[in-house]
Amino acid sequence: MAFEVQRINQLLQEVKAVCTKVQRNPEDIKILAATKYADLEQINTAISAGLTIIGENRLQDAKRKFPLLLPVEKHFIGTLQLNKVKTVVRLFDWIESVDRVDLTEKVDRECEKLNKKMPVLVEVNVAMDAHKHGIALSETFDFIERIAKFWHIKIHGLMAIVPYFADAEESRHYFRAMKTLYDFCRKRYKGFDTLSMGMSHDFKIAIEEGSTEIRIGSYLFKN
Known about the structure:
CATH class: Alpha Beta
Number of domains: 1
CATH topology: TIM Barrel
Oligomer: single chain
Structural class: alpha/beta
Strand order of the largest sheet: 7-6-5-4-3-2-1-8
Shape: globular
Distance between the termini: 12 Å
CATH architecture: Alpha-Beta Barrel
Strand content: 15-25%
Largest sheet: 8 strands, parallel
Radius of gyration: 17 Å
Order of helices and strands: HEHEHEHEHEHEHEHE
CATH superfamily: Alanine racemase
Low-confidence stretches: none
């Protein structure tokens, strides 16, 4: 579909422009296509156009779509529930929403059965929003220490969804707080390479503040 290809090319140019502005390498920014509202044709068009990572929120959608997709890395970006862990571990390549020890322990057990090591991101509720999931900034180090003992997960970094602001500039201090936390974690833990923050409306600010992965949905997919 021409629309998706055009938008992907435009997105790549905008990412490149932001990176030039702040002296970053565009190749260091991963683009995750958030496909919650995209149909199969749109997703496959995006993959054919060069996007290599998709993210799904809902397990039922993943079960329906994944058998019909072109090869692509699949990230689970929704709220993880205990009764969904077994299937999520089987279907997905990454889990980006780890925020409870019991869930992480179950991910570890299910991965052990499959002889699989699951890359995960720790979800941080940077704004302490009661309507969002994630751990508090102040609890991050303790939480990582508690889940680092699990052999079948690999902690790659942090993820945060900041509040929506009509003026994306108002998101900057949340992104900056996450980058500060991420830098501390990188000094303390080996293998941290991903800071996932920024979405369709605020990804430019997120990249300026150090994001290494942006989640793009509505920018790319038109229904």
